[in-house]
């Protein structure tokens, strides 16, 4: 394909006409594909820049990555004036592989905004853990480019490619701490589980293509109900296998086993990235294949996703409940299990869309919840990034007395945990949970709403336990310098409690900015929670 001249000056900014071998002109809308393209270009620029920068200036790569992500995010603004599409069939202009509609733009905003916060959070980690800067920022930007491409994908091939572009760099990011056994083990578990999910998904996609003769989602939706009766079993199997593949990507139980070890072994900002962007990628893909490609099979995927939602939230919250401070459990492992439980809540509206009268509203509930979760979860990981500089073990008990040492960090983390629990003053968390409840009730999934209510109560215990720990007195030190366990009496000659000298460590500036940004956003949205639902209501498919 070769570029041809375009007639209008305005068109030269946003489109380039290409001529196929058959002489058919096809327009490529460069403005529509700007968000993922700019992220990818920024990744390549950072990789090349790494070759010429001396070691003392490698920190500039992080700021270059942040600038690239900010520019990619700003490129969404010109797309707000209406739907745009490109890479369309020449014989059917309304059947396209890339569509920039409201759903796409909201998810791209979530993905690129989350990647920007992850980049801010990563600056201190790249420096302190001596990670290879050029490789780290290139991999992060590449993964963000794939994640931004996925919500715009409207054919199964592009969907799978975007999913893998988002996932493959993430494997390397998890295992980038060279010589660290836990990091290597986490990367291997993540890689093997993801490869298995991709294999299952590709098998399902091939079955769907064999039954319909098309890869475009809208064409598949039209062709599946009218498929040859002899291909019904093949088509049903393809639908089920495709959903199973996405269940792996969303960490839905029983396909969640890779999550805890991966989060604990990965660099903390990478764990934060996976907990938010990984979920956004998986759930946006799941929404596209269910609501757009397989609406005729809602009697299959609706009940299946409802069962997965109930199982996922229960497994995640019960496992998180077992992470206790007195047992020296990891704070990141608790956040990992909490992430699994939150994935169950995110599945509820998608399941409800299978039987709801207005499925678009149910999808809007998922997007609204995802936006809330992204803000407060990144905030919690930002505070965790600071505490990890104080304690390498990063136990839950290391947060004891955080308010006495770093009151603003403790108040911020307490607020984020209350948002995740759905309690005031975290009104945005309560509002998001109410919208999910309403989606389940409106779809006559009362049993699922009851299961969710039970799980919300279970989650209250470990969120409130962690919050209360922030304001308890710090542990005293034995004369040997070791922390005295809770309940052990102090010796008679003990004076005022001593604190670990590491508590004087200053918070890195990018971490402070991340905490401040997420805190301000969380407070603003708690003051006007309707803004989130109004913003997400534009995700009509």
UniProtKB/TrEMBL annotation:
Metal-binding listed as a keyword: no
Domain of life: Bacteria
Membrane topology: Multi-pass membrane protein
Regions crossing the membrane: 30-53, 60-80, 100-121, 133-150, 156-176, 188-210, 234-258, 270-294, 300-322, 334-354, 366-387, 408-433, 445-464
Enzyme Commission code(s) on record: 7.1.1.-
InterPro entries given in the database record: NADH-Q_OxRdtase_suN/2, ND/Mrp_TM
Key words of the record: Cell membrane, Membrane, NAD, Quinone, Translocase, Transmembrane, Transmembrane helix, Transport
MF-aspect GO terms: NADH dehydrogenase (quinone) (non-electrogenic) activity; NADH dehydrogenase (ubiquinone) activity; quinone binding
Record field: catalytic activity: a quinone + NADH + 5 H(+)(in) = a quinol + NAD(+) + 4 H(+)(out)
GO-annotated cellular components: endomembrane system; plasma membrane
Localization of this protein: Cell membrane; Endomembrane system; Membrane
Main location group: membrane
Record flagged with keyword DNA repair: no
Domain (NADH:quinone oxidoreductase/Mrp antiporter transmembrane) ranges: 153-458
GO biological process, one term: ATP synthesis coupled electron transport
Functional summary from the UniProt entry: NDH-1 shuttles electrons from NADH, via FMN and iron-sulfur (Fe-S) centers, to quinones in the respiratory chain. The immediate electron acceptor for the enzyme in this species is believed to be a menaquinone. Couples the redox reaction to proton translocation (for every two electrons transferred, four hydrogen ions are translocated across the cytoplasmic membrane), and thus conserves the redox energy in a proton gradient.
Assembly and oligomerization: NDH-1 is composed of 14 different subunits. Subunits NuoA, H, J, K, L, M, N constitute the membrane sector of the complex.
Entry-linked PANTHER family: NADH DEHYDROGENASE
Family membership noted in the UniProt record: Belongs to the complex I subunit 2 family.
Protein name (record): NADH-quinone oxidoreductase subunit N
Species this protein is from: Streptomyces armeniacus
């Amino acid at each position: 394909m070769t570029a041809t001249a375009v007639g209008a000056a305005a068109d030269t900014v946003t489109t380039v006409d290409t001529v196929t071998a058959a002489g058919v002109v096809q327009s490529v809308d460069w403005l529509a594909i700007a968000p993922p393209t700019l992220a990818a270009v920024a990744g390549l620029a950072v990789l090349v820049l790494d070759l010429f920068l001396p070691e003392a200036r490698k920190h500039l790569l992080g700021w270059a990555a942040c600038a690239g992500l900010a520019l990619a995010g700003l490129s969404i603004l010109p797309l707000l004036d209406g739907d745009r599409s490109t890479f369309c069939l020449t014989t059917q202009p309304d059947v396209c592989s890339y569509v920039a509609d409201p759903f796409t733009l909201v998810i791209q905003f979530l993905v690129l905004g989350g990647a920007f916060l992850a980049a801010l959070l990563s600056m201190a980690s790249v420096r302190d853990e001596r990670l290879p800067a050029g490789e780290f920022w290139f991999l992060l930007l590449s993964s963000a480019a794939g994640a931004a491409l996925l919500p715009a994908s409207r054919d199964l091939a592009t969907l799978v490619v975007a999913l893998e572009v988002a996932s493959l760099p993430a494997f390397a990011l998890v295992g980038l701490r060279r010589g660290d056994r836990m990091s290597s083990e986490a990367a291997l578990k993540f890689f093997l589980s993801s490869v298995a999910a991709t294999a299952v998904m590709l098998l399902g996609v091939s079955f769907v293509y064999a039954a319909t003769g098309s890869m475009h989602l809208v064409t598949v939706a039209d062709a599946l109900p009218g498929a040859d009766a002899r291909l019904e079993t093949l088509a049903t199997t393809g639908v089920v296998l495709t959903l199973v593949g996405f269940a792996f990507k969303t960490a839905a139980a029983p396909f969640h086993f890779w999550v805890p070890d991966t989060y604990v072994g990965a660099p903390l900002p990478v764990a934060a990235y996976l907990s938010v962007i990984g979920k956004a990628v998986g759930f946006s893909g799941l929404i596209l294949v269910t609501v757009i490609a397989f609406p005729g099979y809602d009697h299959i995927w609706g009940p299946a996703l409802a069962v997965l939602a109930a199982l996922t939230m229960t497994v995640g919250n019960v496992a998180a409940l077992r992470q206790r401070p007195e047992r020296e459990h990891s704070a990141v492992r608790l956040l990992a299990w909490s992430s699994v439980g939150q994935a169950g809540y995110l599945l509820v509206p998608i399941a409800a869309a299978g039987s709801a009268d207005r499925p678009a509203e149910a999808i809007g509930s998922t997007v609204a919840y995802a936006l809330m979760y992204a803000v407060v979860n990144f905030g919690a990981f930002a505070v965790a990034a600071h505490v990890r500089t104080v304690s390498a073990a990063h136990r839950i008990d290391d947060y004891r007395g955080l308010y006495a040492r770093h009151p603003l960090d403790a108040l911020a983390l307490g607020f984020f945990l209350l948002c995740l629990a759905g309690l005031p003053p975290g009104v945005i968390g309560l509002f998001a949970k109410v919208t999910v409840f309403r989606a389940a009730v409106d779809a006559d999934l009362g049993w699922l709403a009851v299961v969710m209510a039970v799980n919300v109560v279970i989650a209250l215990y470990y969120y409130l336990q962690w919050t209360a720990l922030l304001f308890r007195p710090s542990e005293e030190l034995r004369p040997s310098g070791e922390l005295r366990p809770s309940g052990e009496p102090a010796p008679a000659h003990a004076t005022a409690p001593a604190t670990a000298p590491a508590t004087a460590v200053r918070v890195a500036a990018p971490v402070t900015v991340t905490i401040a940004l997420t805190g301000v956003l969380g407070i603003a949205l708690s003051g006007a929670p309707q803004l989130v639902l109004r913003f997400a209501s534009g995700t009509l498919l």
